[in-house]
Amino acid sequence: MSTDMPSSRPPSRAARVFAPGPVTCIEDLRRLAERRVPRMFYDYADSGSYSEGTYRANSADFAKIKLRQRVAVDMTDRTLASTMVGQKVAMPVALAPTGLTGMQHADGEILAARAAARAGVPFTLSTMSICSIEDVAAHTDRPFWFQLYVMKDRDFIHRLIDRAKAAECSALVLTLDLQILGQRHKDVRNGLSTPPKPTLRNLLNLATKPRWCMGMLGTKRRQFGNIVGHVKGVGDMTSLSSWTADQFDPALSWDDVARIKERWGGKLILKGILDPEDAELACRSGADALIVSNHGGRQLDGAMSSISALPAIVQQVGDRIEVLFDGGIRSGQDVIKALALGAHGTFIGRAFLYGLGAGGEAGVTQCLDIIRKELDVTMAMCGLRDVRRVDATILADTDGLLPRAQRASLDPTPDLGAAE
Description:
Elements: H1 26-36, H2 39-45, H3 53-60, E1 82-84, E2 87-89, E3 93-95, H4 108-119, E4 124-125, H5 133-139, E5 145-148, H6 154-166, E6 171-175, H7 185-190, H8 200-206, H9 210-217, H10 237-245, H11 254-264, E7 268-273, H12 276-284, E8 289-292, H13 306-317, E9 322-326, H14 332-340, E10 345-348, H15 350-381, H16 404-409
Parallel strand pairs: 3-10, 4-5, 5-6, 6-7, 7-8, 8-9, 9-10
Antiparallel strand pairs: 1-2
Helix pairs in contact: 1-15, 4-15, 12-13, 14-15
Protein backbone atom coordinates (compact mmCIF):
# COMPACT_ATOMS: atom_id res chain seq x y z
CA MET A 1 0.00 0.00 0.00
CA SER A 2 1.24 3.48 -0.83
CA THR A 3 1.87 5.87 2.07
CA ASP A 4 0.74 8.87 0.03
CA MET A 5 -2.76 10.16 0.63
CA PRO A 6 -5.00 11.04 -2.34
CA SER A 7 -5.88 14.60 -3.13
CA SER A 8 -8.96 15.96 -1.38
CA ARG A 9 -12.10 16.11 -3.47
CA PRO A 10 -15.67 16.99 -2.51
CA PRO A 11 -18.11 14.13 -1.97
CA SER A 12 -20.68 13.33 -4.58
CA ARG A 13 -24.33 14.07 -3.98
CA ALA A 14 -24.83 10.35 -3.38
CA ALA A 15 -22.43 10.63 -0.43
CA ARG A 16 -24.79 12.84 1.54
CA VAL A 17 -26.63 11.74 4.66
CA PHE A 18 -30.33 11.14 4.16
CA ALA A 19 -31.94 13.58 6.60
CA PRO A 20 -35.29 15.37 6.93
CA GLY A 21 -33.53 18.74 6.62
CA PRO A 22 -30.15 20.15 5.52
CA VAL A 23 -27.05 18.98 7.38
CA THR A 24 -24.94 22.09 7.90
CA CYS A 25 -22.68 21.29 10.87
CA ILE A 26 -21.43 18.51 13.14
CA GLU A 27 -24.24 19.23 15.60
CA ASP A 28 -26.78 18.27 12.91
CA LEU A 29 -24.99 14.93 12.52
CA ARG A 30 -24.99 14.45 16.29
CA ARG A 31 -28.75 14.88 16.50
CA LEU A 32 -29.27 12.40 13.68
CA ALA A 33 -26.93 9.88 15.30
CA GLU A 34 -28.78 10.21 18.60
CA ARG A 35 -32.00 9.27 16.81
CA ARG A 36 -30.55 6.39 14.80
CA VAL A 37 -28.07 4.63 17.12
CA PRO A 38 -29.23 2.45 20.06
CA ARG A 39 -29.02 4.33 23.33
CA MET A 40 -26.24 2.26 24.92
CA PHE A 41 -23.91 2.76 21.96
CA TYR A 42 -24.76 6.42 21.42
CA ASP A 43 -24.12 7.08 25.12
CA TYR A 44 -20.87 5.14 24.95
CA ALA A 45 -19.60 7.55 22.33
CA ASP A 46 -21.14 10.70 23.77
CA SER A 47 -20.18 10.61 27.43
CA GLY A 48 -17.33 11.14 29.86
CA SER A 49 -16.35 9.76 33.23
CA TYR A 50 -17.98 10.62 36.55
CA SER A 51 -19.44 14.18 36.47
CA GLU A 52 -18.32 14.67 32.83
CA GLY A 53 -16.73 18.01 33.71
CA THR A 54 -13.58 17.41 31.64
CA TYR A 55 -15.66 15.98 28.80
CA ARG A 56 -17.68 19.22 28.62
CA ALA A 57 -14.62 21.45 29.07
CA ASN A 58 -12.92 19.86 26.05
CA SER A 59 -15.47 21.53 23.78
CA ALA A 60 -16.41 24.56 25.90
CA ASP A 61 -12.84 25.83 26.22
CA PHE A 62 -12.55 26.22 22.46
CA ALA A 63 -15.29 28.88 22.58
CA LYS A 64 -13.08 31.07 24.80
CA ILE A 65 -10.47 31.38 22.06
CA LYS A 66 -11.14 34.31 19.73
CA LEU A 67 -9.78 34.84 16.22
CA ARG A 68 -8.47 37.92 14.41
CA GLN A 69 -10.43 38.71 11.27
CA ARG A 70 -8.34 40.22 8.47
CA VAL A 71 -9.56 41.98 5.31
CA ALA A 72 -8.20 43.10 1.94
CA VAL A 73 -5.76 40.20 1.90
CA ASP A 74 -5.37 37.94 -1.15
CA MET A 75 -7.39 34.80 -0.35
CA THR A 76 -6.94 32.96 -3.65
CA ASP A 77 -5.10 29.67 -4.20
CA ARG A 78 -5.58 28.39 -0.66
CA THR A 79 -4.25 25.03 0.45
CA LEU A 80 -4.98 22.82 3.44
CA ALA A 81 -2.39 20.21 2.46
CA SER A 82 0.07 19.29 5.19
CA THR A 83 1.80 16.29 6.76
CA MET A 84 1.21 14.27 9.92
CA VAL A 85 4.08 12.10 11.15
CA GLY A 86 5.71 12.42 7.74
CA GLN A 87 2.58 11.32 5.87
CA LYS A 88 0.90 13.58 3.33
CA VAL A 89 -2.61 14.66 4.33
CA ALA A 90 -5.21 16.71 2.48
CA MET A 91 -5.81 18.64 5.72
CA PRO A 92 -4.22 18.32 9.19
CA VAL A 93 -7.01 16.12 10.54
CA ALA A 94 -7.01 12.38 11.33
CA LEU A 95 -9.77 10.06 12.52
CA ALA A 96 -9.02 9.15 16.13
CA PRO A 97 -9.09 5.58 17.48
CA THR A 98 -12.50 4.90 19.02
CA GLY A 99 -13.65 1.66 20.59
CA LEU A 100 -16.83 -0.08 19.40
CA THR A 101 -16.95 2.01 16.22
CA GLY A 102 -18.63 -0.92 14.48
CA MET A 103 -21.51 -0.62 16.94
CA GLN A 104 -22.35 2.91 15.84
CA HIS A 105 -23.08 1.47 12.40
CA ALA A 106 -22.57 -2.00 10.93
CA ASP A 107 -19.00 -2.46 9.65
CA GLY A 108 -18.24 1.00 11.03
CA GLU A 109 -14.45 0.79 11.03
CA ILE A 110 -14.34 -0.31 7.39
CA LEU A 111 -16.73 2.47 6.35
CA ALA A 112 -14.82 5.13 8.29
CA ALA A 113 -11.48 3.96 6.86
CA ARG A 114 -12.87 4.19 3.34
CA ALA A 115 -14.23 7.69 3.92
CA ALA A 116 -10.93 8.82 5.43
CA ALA A 117 -8.93 7.41 2.50
CA ARG A 118 -11.19 9.17 0.02
CA ALA A 119 -10.84 12.45 1.92
CA GLY A 120 -7.05 12.16 2.09
CA VAL A 121 -6.74 11.89 5.88
CA PRO A 122 -5.48 9.09 8.17
CA PHE A 123 -7.80 6.63 9.88
CA THR A 124 -6.76 5.07 13.21
CA LEU A 125 -8.11 1.64 14.13
CA SER A 126 -8.62 0.91 17.85
CA THR A 127 -7.51 -2.27 19.58
CA MET A 128 -11.12 -2.44 20.82
CA SER A 129 -12.60 -2.26 17.33
CA ILE A 130 -15.39 -4.48 16.02
CA CYS A 131 -13.79 -4.98 12.60
CA SER A 132 -10.34 -6.57 12.84
CA ILE A 133 -7.04 -5.25 11.53
CA GLU A 134 -7.19 -7.78 8.72
CA ASP A 135 -10.79 -6.85 7.86
CA VAL A 136 -9.99 -3.16 7.48
CA ALA A 137 -6.83 -3.87 5.49
CA ALA A 138 -8.79 -6.10 3.10
CA HIS A 139 -11.43 -3.45 2.45
CA THR A 140 -9.36 -0.30 1.91
CA ASP A 141 -6.50 0.40 -0.48
CA ARG A 142 -4.83 3.03 1.73
CA PRO A 143 -2.62 2.53 4.79
CA PHE A 144 -4.15 3.21 8.17
CA TRP A 145 -2.78 3.68 11.66
CA PHE A 146 -3.29 1.19 14.49
CA GLN A 147 -3.86 2.12 18.13
CA LEU A 148 -2.50 -0.21 20.81
CA TYR A 149 -3.62 -0.74 24.40
CA VAL A 150 -1.06 -2.47 26.60
CA MET A 151 -2.50 -5.61 28.20
CA LYS A 152 -0.99 -7.88 30.83
CA ASP A 153 -0.94 -10.63 28.21
CA ARG A 154 2.29 -9.50 26.53
CA ASP A 155 2.27 -12.39 24.09
CA PHE A 156 -1.07 -11.16 22.76
CA ILE A 157 0.32 -7.61 22.49
CA HIS A 158 3.35 -8.83 20.56
CA ARG A 159 1.12 -10.72 18.14
CA LEU A 160 -1.13 -7.69 17.77
CA ILE A 161 1.87 -5.55 16.83
CA ASP A 162 2.98 -8.19 14.34
CA ARG A 163 -0.53 -8.28 12.82
CA ALA A 164 -0.45 -4.49 12.40
CA LYS A 165 2.92 -4.84 10.65
CA ALA A 166 1.56 -7.54 8.35
CA ALA A 167 -1.38 -5.27 7.46
CA GLU A 168 1.15 -2.55 6.52
CA CYS A 169 -0.17 -0.06 9.06
CA SER A 170 1.89 3.10 8.60
CA ALA A 171 2.00 4.19 12.27
CA LEU A 172 1.40 2.73 15.72
CA VAL A 173 -0.52 4.89 18.20
CA LEU A 174 0.29 3.72 21.73
CA THR A 175 -2.30 4.83 24.30
CA LEU A 176 -0.78 5.56 27.71
CA ASP A 177 -3.75 6.84 29.73
CA LEU A 178 -5.84 3.68 30.15
CA GLN A 179 -3.89 1.72 32.73
CA ILE A 180 -7.07 1.61 34.78
CA LEU A 181 -10.57 2.35 33.56
CA GLY A 182 -12.40 5.50 34.63
CA GLN A 183 -16.06 4.83 35.43
CA ARG A 184 -18.57 6.11 32.89
CA HIS A 185 -21.91 6.22 34.66
CA LYS A 186 -23.99 5.99 31.47
CA ASP A 187 -22.30 2.73 30.49
CA VAL A 188 -23.09 1.25 33.89
CA ARG A 189 -26.73 2.34 33.75
CA ASN A 190 -27.13 1.08 30.17
CA GLY A 191 -25.52 -2.30 30.85
CA LEU A 192 -23.21 -1.73 27.87
CA SER A 193 -22.26 -4.91 26.02
CA THR A 194 -21.58 -6.19 22.52
CA PRO A 195 -23.89 -7.49 21.28
CA PRO A 196 -26.54 -5.70 23.40
CA LYS A 197 -27.96 -7.57 26.39
CA PRO A 198 -31.56 -8.63 25.65
CA THR A 199 -33.09 -6.69 28.54
CA LEU A 200 -36.60 -5.30 28.13
CA ARG A 201 -35.28 -1.75 28.09
CA ASN A 202 -32.68 -2.53 25.42
CA LEU A 203 -35.13 -4.50 23.29
CA LEU A 204 -37.65 -1.65 23.38
CA ASN A 205 -34.95 0.81 22.37
CA LEU A 206 -33.70 -1.45 19.55
CA ALA A 207 -37.26 -1.64 18.21
CA THR A 208 -37.05 2.10 17.50
CA LYS A 209 -33.81 1.70 15.47
CA PRO A 210 -34.83 -0.48 12.48
CA ARG A 211 -32.12 0.87 10.17
CA TRP A 212 -29.39 0.02 12.68
CA CYS A 213 -30.86 -3.43 13.34
CA MET A 214 -31.06 -4.28 9.64
CA GLY A 215 -27.44 -3.28 9.22
CA MET A 216 -26.34 -5.48 12.10
CA LEU A 217 -28.35 -8.44 10.82
CA GLY A 218 -26.54 -8.08 7.51
CA THR A 219 -23.01 -8.31 8.92
CA LYS A 220 -21.02 -10.99 10.71
CA ARG A 221 -18.93 -8.35 12.52
CA ARG A 222 -20.55 -7.97 15.93
CA GLN A 223 -17.75 -8.61 18.43
CA PHE A 224 -14.20 -7.39 19.10
CA GLY A 225 -12.48 -8.60 15.96
CA ASN A 226 -8.92 -7.98 17.16
CA ILE A 227 -9.40 -10.09 20.28
CA VAL A 228 -12.00 -12.85 19.90
CA GLY A 229 -10.29 -15.87 18.34
CA HIS A 230 -6.83 -14.36 18.90
CA VAL A 231 -6.56 -14.93 22.65
CA LYS A 232 -6.37 -18.38 24.19
CA GLY A 233 -9.64 -19.19 25.91
CA VAL A 234 -11.52 -16.23 24.41
CA GLY A 235 -13.90 -17.49 21.75
CA ASP A 236 -17.03 -15.46 22.41
CA MET A 237 -18.30 -12.31 24.11
CA THR A 238 -18.90 -14.01 27.44
CA SER A 239 -15.30 -15.18 27.84
CA LEU A 240 -14.07 -11.83 26.46
CA SER A 241 -15.75 -9.86 29.26
CA SER A 242 -13.90 -11.71 31.99
CA TRP A 243 -10.61 -11.45 30.06
CA THR A 244 -10.74 -7.68 29.44
CA ALA A 245 -11.82 -6.92 33.03
CA ASP A 246 -8.39 -8.04 34.22
CA GLN A 247 -6.21 -7.14 31.25
CA PHE A 248 -5.51 -3.38 31.24
CA ASP A 249 -2.06 -3.15 32.82
CA PRO A 250 -1.62 -0.71 35.74
CA ALA A 251 2.13 -1.47 35.71
CA LEU A 252 2.68 0.11 32.26
CA SER A 253 5.97 2.05 32.28
CA TRP A 254 8.34 3.87 29.96
CA ASP A 255 10.38 0.65 29.78
CA ASP A 256 7.35 -0.95 28.11
CA VAL A 257 7.21 1.96 25.67
CA ALA A 258 10.84 1.31 24.72
CA ARG A 259 10.20 -2.41 24.17
CA ILE A 260 7.11 -1.73 22.06
CA LYS A 261 9.03 0.84 20.01
CA GLU A 262 11.77 -1.71 19.32
CA ARG A 263 9.34 -4.46 18.30
CA TRP A 264 7.26 -2.14 16.11
CA GLY A 265 10.19 -0.53 14.31
CA GLY A 266 8.06 2.05 12.50
CA LYS A 267 6.47 5.42 13.22
CA LEU A 268 5.39 5.58 16.87
CA ILE A 269 2.87 8.06 18.29
CA LEU A 270 2.22 8.32 22.04
CA LYS A 271 -1.37 9.22 22.96
CA GLY A 272 -2.65 10.54 26.28
CA ILE A 273 -0.09 13.23 27.17
CA LEU A 274 -1.55 16.06 29.27
CA ASP A 275 1.37 17.28 31.38
CA PRO A 276 4.68 18.90 30.29
CA GLU A 277 6.70 16.48 32.42
CA ASP A 278 5.14 13.51 30.65
CA ALA A 279 5.67 15.31 27.33
CA GLU A 280 9.37 15.54 28.15
CA LEU A 281 9.50 11.81 28.90
CA ALA A 282 7.64 11.09 25.67
CA CYS A 283 10.18 13.15 23.78
CA ARG A 284 13.09 11.30 25.39
CA SER A 285 11.49 7.95 24.51
CA GLY A 286 12.35 8.46 20.85
CA ALA A 287 8.72 8.47 19.68
CA ASP A 288 7.97 10.32 16.47
CA ALA A 289 4.98 12.25 17.83
CA LEU A 290 2.78 12.67 20.86
CA ILE A 291 -0.93 13.40 21.12
CA VAL A 292 -2.14 15.89 23.71
CA SER A 293 -5.28 14.09 24.90
CA ASN A 294 -7.33 13.36 28.03
CA HIS A 295 -9.09 10.38 26.41
CA GLY A 296 -12.07 12.52 25.49
CA GLY A 297 -12.76 13.28 29.15
CA ARG A 298 -13.39 9.57 29.75
CA GLN A 299 -10.61 8.93 32.28
CA LEU A 300 -9.62 11.52 34.92
CA ASP A 301 -12.63 13.75 35.41
CA GLY A 302 -11.39 17.12 36.65
CA ALA A 303 -8.29 17.05 34.46
CA MET A 304 -7.50 20.01 32.20
CA SER A 305 -9.19 20.22 28.85
CA SER A 306 -6.88 19.16 26.03
CA ILE A 307 -6.87 22.64 24.45
CA SER A 308 -5.90 24.23 27.80
CA ALA A 309 -3.03 21.77 28.22
CA LEU A 310 -1.70 22.17 24.66
CA PRO A 311 0.32 25.44 24.86
CA ALA A 312 2.52 24.40 27.79
CA ILE A 313 3.32 21.09 26.12
CA VAL A 314 4.19 22.83 22.86
CA GLN A 315 6.49 25.19 24.77
CA GLN A 316 8.16 22.24 26.53
CA VAL A 317 8.83 19.92 23.59
CA GLY A 318 7.34 21.38 20.39
CA ASP A 319 10.72 21.98 18.77
CA ARG A 320 11.84 18.38 19.39
CA ILE A 321 8.83 16.18 18.69
CA GLU A 322 5.70 16.52 16.59
CA VAL A 323 2.82 17.59 18.82
CA LEU A 324 -0.63 16.43 17.74
CA PHE A 325 -3.96 17.24 19.37
CA ASP A 326 -7.11 15.36 20.34
CA GLY A 327 -10.15 16.40 22.37
CA GLY A 328 -13.32 18.38 21.79
CA ILE A 329 -13.03 19.27 18.11
CA ARG A 330 -16.47 19.80 16.62
CA SER A 331 -15.67 22.17 13.75
CA GLY A 332 -13.03 23.37 11.36
CA GLN A 333 -12.69 26.45 13.55
CA ASP A 334 -11.67 24.21 16.45
CA VAL A 335 -9.04 22.66 14.18
CA ILE A 336 -7.51 26.02 13.31
CA LYS A 337 -7.50 27.10 16.97
CA ALA A 338 -5.55 23.97 17.93
CA LEU A 339 -3.10 24.64 15.10
CA ALA A 340 -2.75 28.26 16.23
CA LEU A 341 -1.80 27.08 19.71
CA GLY A 342 0.97 24.91 18.32
CA ALA A 343 -0.48 21.56 17.24
CA HIS A 344 0.97 20.15 14.04
CA GLY A 345 -2.19 18.15 13.35
CA THR A 346 -5.46 17.19 14.99
CA PHE A 347 -7.74 14.20 15.59
CA ILE A 348 -11.51 13.99 15.53
CA GLY A 349 -13.31 11.20 17.39
CA ARG A 350 -16.89 11.93 18.37
CA ALA A 351 -17.40 14.17 15.34
CA PHE A 352 -16.83 11.34 12.88
CA LEU A 353 -18.78 8.90 15.06
CA TYR A 354 -21.78 11.22 14.81
CA GLY A 355 -21.43 11.11 11.04
CA LEU A 356 -21.08 7.34 11.06
CA GLY A 357 -24.14 6.88 13.27
CA ALA A 358 -26.13 9.35 11.20
CA GLY A 359 -25.36 7.91 7.79
CA GLY A 360 -22.59 5.33 7.64
CA GLU A 361 -19.78 5.99 5.18
CA ALA A 362 -21.66 8.94 3.65
CA GLY A 363 -22.00 10.45 7.11
CA VAL A 364 -18.25 10.26 7.79
CA THR A 365 -17.61 11.77 4.37
CA GLN A 366 -20.01 14.60 5.15
CA CYS A 367 -18.40 15.16 8.55
CA LEU A 368 -14.98 15.54 6.93
CA ASP A 369 -16.42 17.80 4.23
CA ILE A 370 -17.96 20.06 6.89
CA ILE A 371 -14.67 20.26 8.83
CA ARG A 372 -12.72 20.93 5.64
CA LYS A 373 -14.98 23.76 4.50
CA GLU A 374 -15.07 25.42 7.93
CA LEU A 375 -11.28 25.19 8.23
CA ASP A 376 -10.75 26.63 4.76
CA VAL A 377 -13.15 29.56 5.18
CA THR A 378 -11.88 30.42 8.66
CA MET A 379 -8.27 30.34 7.51
CA ALA A 380 -9.09 32.71 4.65
CA MET A 381 -10.94 35.14 6.91
CA CYS A 382 -7.92 35.16 9.23
CA GLY A 383 -5.83 36.30 6.26
CA LEU A 384 -3.94 33.10 5.43
CA ARG A 385 -3.74 30.93 2.33
CA ASP A 386 -1.62 28.02 3.60
CA VAL A 387 -2.60 25.99 6.65
CA ARG A 388 1.07 25.36 7.41
CA ARG A 389 1.45 29.07 8.24
CA VAL A 390 -1.22 29.07 10.94
CA ASP A 391 0.16 30.19 14.30
CA ALA A 392 -0.88 32.24 17.33
CA THR A 393 -0.80 35.50 15.34
CA ILE A 394 -4.33 34.66 14.12
CA LEU A 395 -5.63 34.78 17.71
CA ALA A 396 -7.26 37.95 18.99
CA ASP A 397 -5.85 37.66 22.50
CA THR A 398 -3.13 35.28 23.63
CA ASP A 399 -3.12 36.42 27.28
CA GLY A 400 -4.02 33.43 29.41
CA LEU A 401 -3.65 31.07 26.43
CA LEU A 402 0.10 31.00 25.83
CA PRO A 403 3.03 30.92 28.26
CA ARG A 404 4.84 34.26 28.41
CA ALA A 405 7.85 32.99 26.46
CA GLN A 406 5.64 31.92 23.57
CA ARG A 407 3.78 35.26 23.52
CA ALA A 408 7.07 37.14 23.43
CA SER A 409 8.33 35.08 20.50
CA LEU A 410 5.42 35.95 18.22
CA ASP A 411 6.16 38.20 15.26
CA PRO A 412 3.73 41.14 15.53
CA THR A 413 3.88 41.84 11.78
CA PRO A 414 3.62 38.48 9.96
CA ASP A 415 3.46 38.16 6.17
CA LEU A 416 -0.23 37.34 6.28
CA GLY A 417 -0.89 36.91 2.59
CA ALA A 418 2.10 34.85 1.56
CA ALA A 419 1.76 31.18 0.72
CA GLU A 420 4.71 28.82 0.68
